[in-house]
Amino acid sequence: MQKLSAILLVVLLCATSNGVLSFTDGILPNGQFEYGPKPSQMKGTRVIDPKAIPNWELTGFIEYIKSGQKQGDMLLVVPEGAYAVRLGEDASIKTKVKVTKGLFYSITFNVARTCAQEEKLNVSVSPNSEPNDWGILPMQTMYSSNGWDTYSWGFLAESNNIEIVIHNPSVEKDPACGPLVDSVALKALFPPRRTNANMLKNGDFEEGPFVLPKTDVGGVLIPPNIEDDHSPLPGWMIESLKAVKYLDAEHFAVPKGKRAVELIAGKESAIAQVVKTTPGKVYALSFVVGDANNACEGSMIVEAFASKNTLRVPYESKGKGGFKQAVLKFRAVTTRTRIRFLSTFYQMKTDGSLCGPIIDDVRMIGVRYAKHA
Fold first, then answer.
1. Cα distance between residue 328 and residue 356, in whole Å
2. Would the CA dihedral through 355, 361, 367, 369 be positive or negative?
3. Any idea which fold 20-188 has?
4. What's this model's pTM, rounded to 2 decimal places?
5. What DSSP string describes 266-301?
6. 319: left (phi over 0), alpha (psi -120 to 50) or beta
7. For each of the chain's 373 residues, which pLDDT tens digit applies?
8. Where in the chain are the domains?
9. CB-based contacts of 2, cutoff 8 Å, min separation 6
10. What element of type H or E holds 12?
11. What's the distance, Cα to Cα, between the start and end of the chain in Å?
12. Is residue 271 within 8 Å of residue 223, measured between CB atoms?
């Protein structure tokens, strides 16, 4: 017993020898900004002390916003808790986090546009050896009806100690103009490998960004033009002009497992993956098409592309959940084949928010013979 206690003590000392344990999953310390400035550190709603918000360092025109606060005739809503921060012209918030060097991570946070149509945010992590490697999140399109969207962004940790920066690069006539940010979270990602049962990585979408548990925004957006090397959806590229939405079984109807992907912007919302293939060999690409039980109704079509083959899968949604299986057989013509999915039509709920079909359980295997491939 004494020997076991000594071993546990050594393990504990090793784990804490560099200070705080590495962060894995969840809301960052004061990531919901519920601990805020003292009255002496503010001028109206503006925070004038760069270290007034615990765990964060502020630069530029930052406002500390209380839920229900008005901006002219507009009511500013905070999705979770009582407070959020607003990033004005060229403003940024920065926090330090202890992570595990060499692991992949994804950042998740809520954001709302408050002024201009062209608002955007830059997300970056340092240290970073790759030049110009930051996430640009355009907010011309708001995907929810309540004014708040949840975004994610992925990165590779190059140090055990990193700095996360969320920056508003916009320059407006009103320096206070800028997006609201709330509920900043982090999750370690463990990209799945290809197996004999599935040549695709993360075909079931179980590995992905942190899903905020208590907000009513619904789902996590994975922004457009995301390559697979640092994707918050490991193995997949977002090969489109608009985002796709990552869904969890706690809030939506998911055909299999706990996660799925919703194609929310027609042909402007697509995911893709490149897989090694043998020219002349026949493969079977199977997947599930359905709806997320989120009141997204109507005639839907998911298009699947592989090599020179295309399969259009119709699905009539009543918006109450359900799914169907589909299989695309194709003959590879090159050593690398791009697998791609998109939605043919734009879909919209009655509240005006974008939605679409979901896909899940994507599998690819080699087959000996396919008569019509």
1. 21
2. negative
3. Jelly Rolls (2.60.120)
4. 0.89
5. GGG-EEEEEEE--TT-EEEEEEEEEE-SSS-EEEEE
6. left
7. 444 344 333 333 343 334 456 887 999 999 999 999 999 999 999 999 999 999 999 999 999 999 888 777 777 888 888 999 999 989 999 999 999 999 999 999 999 888 766 778 899 999 988 766 667 787 777 788 777 899 999 999 999 999 999 999 887 778 888 889 999 999 999 988 889 899 999 999 999 999 998 766 579 999 887 776 788 999 999 988 889 999 999 999 999 999 999 999 999 989 999 999 999 999 999 999 999 999 999 999 999 999 999 999 999 999 999 999 999 999 999 999 999 999 999 999 998 889 999 999 999 999 975 454 4
8. 20-188, 190-367
9. none
10. helix 2-16
11. 64
12. no
Structure tokens that stand for 155 in this block = 């990165």
Look up residue 340 and give its amino acid. Answer: R
The H or E element that residue 7 is part of is: helix 2-16
Which stretch of DSSP H or E encloses residue 262?
A: strand 259-262
Find out whether 317 and 109 touch, Cβ atoms under 8 Å.
no
Please give the structure tokens belonging to residue 300: 């839907």
Supply φ then ψ for residue 8, to 5 degrees: -65, -35
- Cβ atoms of 313 and 291 within 8 Å: the answer is no
CA–CA separation, 191 vs 104, rounded Å? 8
Superfamily for 190-367? Answer: Galactose-binding domain-like (2.60.120.260)
Question: For residue 142, how far is the Cα from the chain centroid?
Answer: 15
- Residue 50 identity: P
CA 356 vs CA 232, 246, 294, 308: distances in Å: 20, 12, 10, 25
C-alpha pair distances (Å), 275 with each of 79, 203, 260, 281, 302:
39, 12, 20, 13, 20
Q: Which two tokens stand for residue 217?
A: 């925004």
CA 49 to chain centre: 31
111: its two tokens: 């954001």
Structure tokens at 74: 């507009």
What span, in angstroms and rounded, lies between the C-alpha atoms of 264 and 355? Answer: 4
